[in-house]
Amino acid sequence: MIDVIDQLDALRARVNAWKREGLRVGFVPTMGNLHAGHFSLVELARRYADKVVASVFVNPTQFGPNEDFARYPRTPQADAAGLRAAGCDALWLPSVEAMYPYGADHAVRMHVPGITDSLDGASRPGHFDGVATVVSRLFNQVQADVAVFGRKDYQQLAVIRYLVRDLAFPIEILAGDTLREADGLAMSSRNQYLTAHQRSIAPTIHRVLHAMRAAWQQGTLRSELEASADQALRNAGFVPDYAVIRRPDFTEPVDGEGGALVALIAARLGTTRLIDNLEFDFGI
Ligand code: PAF
């Protein structure tokens, strides 16, 4: 049984009842069109909580004017069935009015500084303000003890952690590993936009990330390996937004640097923008 809730007072009553019983509440925010990657986040939440709430809300404030808000796939029935099967206890389906009582254009907005200046923050102006704005609202609505976000959205995860620490949200953040298709393509709702030909090219992103990691380990200069990655993506038919190696705080590592690093790619295939990343650490 999954409780489908579309009124805030009903959500509050449900979560408060659980809390009165001393139960720990987990939360998985999503934009719907759920796939195995999302369900693995629900399963992770279940390991750290007694009850799990998922939300489905295609958030208008995180899409740019020329992005895919209108065509973003909406599959509410399949989402509810999948969440039920994954062991989710409640599905929160807020309306735009419930999320933005003054309207999306008159909403109080969040802005996480610094780490949103580069990469997706630069390619998609305002995107992370929209994410931080909606996630703050979702946290206030659901009042969960723990929330789960996917590592595929590496920069988003950093934005959420910054937000939670800076505003002292009483919630623990967990990161779920990226689920991949057999050929390495990271699972994403946007994969279904791809034509058969584009789908056959798409795993190149994963291969290039591994090549970047190997080149770093071999001591290749960062400028060279980033240029080669960009070229490899272009040769395959992508238009890259970026293909870079960064520290976890998104600053640029010096050549040969050890410790925790991440290779990040965002690239367009036709009108579809795909992102992926690979974390690595070769020690000092
Ligand atoms: O990762 C997503 O699906 C969205 O950015 C999120 C966190 C649900 C906010 O709308």
Order of helices and strands: EHEHEHEHHHEHEHHHEEE
Number of helices: 10
Name the hetero compounds present: pantoate
Structural class: alpha/beta
Provide the number of structural domains.
2
CATH A-level architecture of the largest domain: 3-Layer(aba) Sandwich
Strand residues, percent? 15-25%
Distance between termini? Answer: 50 Å
Please describe the biggest sheet, giving its number of strands, its sense, and whether it closes into a barrel: 6 strands, parallel
What is the overall silhouette? globular
CATH class of the largest domain: Alpha Beta
Mean pLDDT: 97
Output the CATH homologous superfamily of the largest domain. HUPs
CATH topology of the largest domain: Rossmann fold
Rg over alpha carbons: 19 Å
The tally of beta strands, per DSSP, is: 9
Low-pLDDT parts are none
Summarize the structure in words.
By secondary structure, this protein is an alpha/beta fold. It has 2 domains: 3-176, 3-Layer(aba) Sandwich (Rossmann fold), CATH 3.40.50.620; 189-277, Pantoate-beta-alanine ligase, C-terminal domain (Pantoate--beta-alanine Ligase, Chain: A,domain 2, 2-Layer Sandwich), CATH 3.30.1300. It is built from 10 helices and 9 strands. Helix 7 (154-166) links the parallel strand 5 and strand 6 (172-176). The protein is globular, with a radius of gyration of 19 Å. The mean pLDDT is 97. The structure holds pantoate.
